């Protein structure tokens, strides 16, 4: 990204990480029913995301290994994982220096000695050869414009046999929904979603790119190219697990907070949306917009 775009992204994420209500309305995975749906899609059980990730890291690394996690923000997920794996060392980087400063102080105060957070732009990584056993992208890679450099630096920074694990939005770049997403989203808003849950939008519209560039130029900048560019990088892709949400995301984004997890009428609406999305995925009408990607550095 250009310097002014980088600065806008920094300012946006400084504010977003400081405002708890941002994710409450924007991130559909804050709702426990959506979390459960994603877990069943990915793992076939109700295992938590961080529990599954901790197991994967433990299996793929050894005591004393270093793990890099990019675009970590306040490193809330990383704090949980680092506590669970105290014999591994975690290094997080993020572009928002104010967030990094605050997170570093909190991590030190909490006594998490095996986690450090540094200021860094994952678009311009320069990693030491064979330093890391694992690289994590936890909702991070879809914010990167320079995907080609990122994958090449992962190849450089990972030791032979080292793994990249990414849990990512891989749907249409800049949230420019497909015609099928718009058509099916409009239909379920008419037929399934009651008006009380349509406070933000009553139909599906592509988000104006100009407004995204003004707010956060990094958002989903090349998300639709993540899988293809990874495969072309020389890393060996060993798994891509689709997590769906190609119907849920355009329908529920900015509206998920209207669904009370304790209200079973609300949960029934979500369940009907889950079933409809599954039908559309099986029929090939929609693709998976979220995926877990695992890639390995070969010899």
Using only C-alpha atoms, the radius of gyration works out to: 19 Å
Oligomerization? single chain
Describe the largest sheet. Answer: 7 strands, mixed
**Count of DSSP H/I helices:** 12
Task: List the SSEs and their pairings.
Elements (H helix, E strand, L loop, with lengths): L2 H16 L1 H7 L5 H12 L5 H12 L5 E5 L5 H9 L4 E6 L2 H13 L5 E5 L12 E7 L8 H11 E12 L9 H13 L17 H7 L10 H7 L3 E9 L3 H5 L11 H19 L7 E7 L3
Parallel strand pairs: 1-2, 1-4, 2-3, 4-5
Antiparallel strand pairs: 5-7, 6-7
Description:
With 299 residues, this protein is an alpha/beta fold. It has one domain: Vaccinia Virus protein VP39 (Rossmann fold, 3-Layer(aba) Sandwich). It is built from twelve helices and seven strands. The protein has helices at 3-18, 20-26, 32-43, 49-60, 76-84, 97-109, 147-157, 179-191, 209-215, 226-232, 248-252, 264-282; strands spanning 66-70, 89-94, 115-119, 132-138, 158-169, 236-244, 290-296. The protein has a seven-stranded mixed beta sheet with strand order 3-2-1-4-5-7-6, with helices on both faces. Strand 2, helix 6 and strand 3 form a beta-alpha-beta unit. Helix 4 (49-60) crosses helix 5. Mean pLDDT is 93; it is low at 20-25.
Structure characteristics:
Rossmann fold; 299 residues; single chain; alpha/beta; 12 helices; 44% helix; seven-stranded mixed beta sheet
Brief synopsis:
With 299 residues, the protein is α/β, with parallel strands linked by helices.
